[in-house]
Amino acid sequence: MKPNIQLALDTSDLSFALKAAWELQEHVDIIEAGTHLLLAEGLRCVRLLKNLFPEKIILADTKIIDGGDALAKDACSAGADIITVVSAASQATISKAANAAHSSGKKVLLDNLSTEWDSPDFLAKTGLDVDHIGLHLPKDLQDSTKLDAETLRKALKNFSKPIFLAGGVEPVLVKKMIGLPIEGFVIGKYLLDGANRIEKARELNTIINRWN
């Protein structure tokens, strides 16, 4: 099965985010209201995205670490199809967020923002009632560290749930992952920065169409 392309709208500029989403809507599968956008605009950006793109999956990058029930309910009520909970959250918070999301027919991604994807604590939490797992190289590490295909190949063997990769994803990495069980690639900077967004998206789709 081919991976999804998730457009990460990691910006505080709502107008810019909506313009980019409009331009790229035919080339992506999931549209993400990034954490920066959520902080700047609140959940109204989720409502706007769901109203403008009703056929798309809308992910709210809520990065919940506490208050799982209330925050999950609010994000799902705003139109999020998927919410995120960070793997540093307690098992109680993860479970409460998952229960709240599932009661609305929505899903939860457990997001590990680190490079410690084999830690016993994280692996134990992936066994909770979450729907997706995020292996996410943090933005603040991306100047000194890059996602490594071989490391990712080894990490994937530890998981039975669908995996999303995030953190500086570009075509060169996607090519190296062809055929592996990846549910989605989360791509923000590569598609948002500079010109030729549509050409970049087409290149990504050409690579992804080679998946077995």
Overview of this structure, please?
With 212 residues, this protein is of the alpha/beta class. It has a single domain, classed as TIM Barrel. Helix content is 41%, strand content 20%. The chain is built from ten helices and eight strands. An eight-stranded parallel beta barrel has the order 1-2-3-4-5-6-7-8, surrounded by six helices. Strand 7 (163-166), helix 8 (171-176) and strand 8 (184-187) form a beta-alpha-beta unit. Helix 4 (68-77) runs parallel beside helix 5. The longest helix is centred in the middle third of the chain and has 13 residues, at 91-103. It starts with a strand and ends with a helix. The model has no long low-confidence stretch (mean pLDDT 95).
